Amino acid sequence: MRRIVVLAGGIGGARFLRGLRPAAPDAEITVIGNTGDDIHLFGLKICPDLDTVMYTLGGGIHEEQGWGRADESFAVREELAAYGVEPTWFGLGDRDIATHIVRTQMLGAGYPLSAVTEALCARWQPGVKLLPMTDDRVETHVVIDAPDGGRRAVHFQEYWVRLRAAVPAHGIVPVGAETAAPAPGVLQALAEADVILFPPSNPVVSIGTILSVPGIREAVAGAAAPVVGLSPLIGGAPVRGMADKVLAAIGVAADTAAVARHYGPELLDGWLVAPQDADAVPEVEKAGIRCRAVPLLMSDRQAATAMAGQALELAEEVRAA
Ligand code: GDP
Ligand code: CA
Which positions does UniProt annotate for 7,8-didemethyl-8-hydroxy-5-deazariboflavin binding (predicted)? Predict the structure, then answer.
């Protein structure tokens, strides 16, 4: 398979991609990255998911944390705190800030985000073509309870980082998506792909947000290539993060078969579940999606590579069928 396209969020997408490269050493890998988590803070444009993919594949990631830079320091954060600058809940590291300065400067000079991302990747050499899902501004908002008994929407970062996903979420809104356009190269990559993969990224606020950009869902559904996804849930719970909470917010149960049915056979040809969820296989297959149970824990690079190999194998099976 020469051309592989992956729809990726942050850590789940990035770690999977790090396994995919050695699993398909000759392939041209295009990543369509989620930008719904992007936020403007301290005058800077921050793209957490694009940066997690770029740093992870480029060797600059803080490995245990899964986001931000290795060997990071926080002098700027301390100085901002000394001025009483809000918000204090989003901690940017000094090295990371340099990335955001370059990005913000280039955007200010008129370059689209896709060109800026390409420029940043010239340094990191991630070994994949990293495209933002759109050059337009899309922001994922989460609907939560308001103090007056009503409802209010907060930016996804506020829900996740400040509130730690500890308050009920009643809805997820990709603000701006309806008028956004796919970034240059996105639709072409999907049309020309030999295989399309959904890594174990968050199905709602990562892959769901990418699919909410008009034209992308249709391009995945209409692509000639087999589409194979890997479950981010194992035994009914996310491996890390809040996928269960944001699934509940859109009325989808936190189990792997429900996630597969949520994507549906229009999008998915194949779905990988963990061995713990082997009993979900018949249910997923009944929904018209080919399903296998294989180890899905990315405990190290080899494990991620084995998962990528299984995904490519299932894609081959779909193609042959
Ligand atoms: P985020 O933007 O940083 O939240 O990253 P993603 O959306 O790309 O990935 C988050 C999802 O990855 C979560 O729902 C996790 O359950 C899932 N995830 C993280 N590590 C693993 C793993 O080792 N195996 C599987 N199957 N899923 C994982
Ligand atoms: Ca994210």
Answer: 51
